[in-house]
Design goal:
73 residues; mainly beta; three-stranded antiparallel sheet; 1 helix; binds zinc ion
Length: 73
């Protein structure tokens, strides 16, 4: 049986995970949000976490951008 190299699963049905991002820069200007070009299930929502407005991005867990975002913590 051939071993297939692991292909990242970034389809609409892929498992997804979220990362919370600042909605505003320190001087109050908003961060621009661009749709992820690396995965299909990307979407974002605005959440209020204990009075702080954050942008919650959802990506496929295999998405490279998601991995980059979550690796910096
Ligand atoms: Zn993504």
């Amino acid at each position: 049986m051939d071993q297939q190299p692991h292909e990242p699963n970034v389809t609409y049905s892929a498992p997804i995970g979220s990362v919370d991002l600042d909605a505003f820069k320190d001087d109050g200007t908003p961060h621009e949000i661009w749709p992820c070009t690396d995965c299909y299930p990307w979407h974002a929502e605005v959440v209020n976490v204990e009075g702080e407005i954050l942008v919650r991005e959802w990506h496929a867990v295999d998405c490279q951008q998601f991995r980059d975002l979550t690796a910096r913590d």
